[in-house]
Task: inverse folding
């Protein structure tokens, strides 16, 4: 039936079905139950009702015109075209090893979020990331802030109106450079306006911070390179501030996506080894001789909210995680050390050559924006979609 030009099944699909049948049997049952697509499923259901095998055979020959299409001899000859070889024996799985010479905190974050995603992205380079309006918003905003602080390293000394006007112009020009990356002119305009509103709130926060304790921005997009137990790491610090009085530095990470809403939540992520970004920057700057006293995530996503960083002050002694919803908290040095140890352990795992497969995440929310979801048959489904599989 599959070979018949009247089956409606393309030749290559028919061959695939036949191969599947050779391995698993029950092909026609599957087609009749519409678990596999074939235009003759309805005909099969009718043929099933014919109790007598010979009658069924004749009906098949008639419906699919097997005799009229060159006669039995040709049918026999055609039968040879679908003679199947033995199914291939699966090759033994080989261990895989990270090929890249250098790691980054975001690479390890991807691994702990979903090892399969890490495999697709960092081992296979499976999909070219074309970016999204959210990512271009982030890129343009980062570029504008880098230019601003290059010109005004001491925001407290600047004229507030000038600072605000300068950032407005820098945001416009940064977005203009990325204009063609946005899908539509409307999307571009919406994102640009969102950035402008957020930029105003950023300047308000910046000036208030400088008034509270004056500081100097010592670098933006600062390369952070570090070797830990033979594993090389690289990253870029969005902003590094030095306190004018104490000389201690604060690491600032701009966030244009969703982040923890309070300090305790962010510390818990670090404690559970879900986020290595700021611990890595801590160790990179410490290796450079800085005294890092503060790690901060600066949310730049929501133009309607005031800019309110999530801050963790590094303390030398252990401390309990409070239940407070405060944006400011502490992180003991011991937890940063544990994060560093876990980073090294993960690098050892990834370069051991032992993993033969990379598990998918158990958290369906990780799949929402995953570029690999279309290829990822094992991905977990959100509870409300499980019965729709
Ligand atoms: S779709 Fe989900 S499970 Fe699959 S790689 Fe992406 S994040 Fe992992």
Result:
């Amino acid at each position: 039936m599959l070979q018949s030009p009247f089956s409606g099944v393309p030749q290559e699909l028919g061959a695939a079905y036949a191969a599947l049948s050779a391995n698993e049997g029950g092909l026609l049952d599957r087609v009749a139950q519409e678990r596999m697509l074939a235009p003759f499923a309805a005909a099969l259901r009718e043929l099933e009702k014919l109790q007598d095998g010979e009658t069924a055979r004749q009906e098949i020959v008639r419906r699919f015109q097997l005799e009229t299409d060159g006669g039995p001899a040709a049918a026999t000859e055609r039968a040879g075209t679908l003679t199947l070889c033995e199914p291939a024996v699966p090759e033994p799985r080989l261990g895989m090893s990270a090929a890249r010479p250098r790691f980054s905190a975001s690479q390890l974050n991807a691994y702990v979020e979903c090892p399969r995603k890490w495999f697709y992205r960092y081992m296979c380079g499976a999909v070219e990331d074309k970016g999204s309006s959210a990512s271009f918003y982030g890129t343009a905003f980062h570029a504008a802030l880098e230019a601003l602080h290059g010109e005004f390293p001491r925001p407290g000394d600047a004229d507030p109106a000038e600072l605000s006007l300068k950032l407005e112009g820098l945001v416009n020009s940064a977005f203009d450079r990325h204009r063609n990356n946005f899908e539509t002119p409307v999307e571009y305009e919406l994102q640009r306006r969102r950035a402008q509103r957020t930029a105003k709130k950023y300047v308000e926060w910046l000036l208030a911070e400088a008034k509270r304790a004056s500081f100097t921005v010592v670098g933006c997009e600062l390369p952070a390179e570090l070797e830990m137990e033979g594993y090389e790491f690289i990253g870029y610090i969005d902003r590094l501030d030095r306190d004018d009085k104490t000389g201690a530095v604060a690491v600032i990470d701009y966030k244009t996506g969703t982040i923890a809403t309070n300090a305790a939540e962010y510390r818990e992520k670090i404690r559970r080894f879900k986020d290595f970004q700021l611990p890595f920057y801590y160790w990179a700057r410490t290796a450079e001789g800085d005294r890092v006293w503060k790690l901060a995530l600066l949310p730049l996503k929501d133009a309607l909210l005031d800019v309110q960083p999530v801050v963790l002050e590094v303390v030398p002694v252990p401390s309990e995680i409070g239940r407070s919803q405060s944006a400011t908290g502490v992180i003991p040095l011991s937890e940063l050390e544990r994060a560093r140890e876990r980073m090294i352990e993960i690098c050892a795992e990834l370069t051991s050559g032992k993993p033969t497969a990379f598990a998918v995440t158990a958290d369906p929310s990780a799949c929402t924006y995953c570029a690999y979801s279309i290829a990822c048959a094992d991905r977990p489904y959100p509870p409300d979609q499980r019965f729709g599989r």
About this structure: The two ends are 29 Å apart (CA to CA). The pocket of iron/sulfur cluster is lined by residues 114, 116-117, 120, 360-361, 366-367, 370, 372-373, 376, 379 (CB under 6 Å).
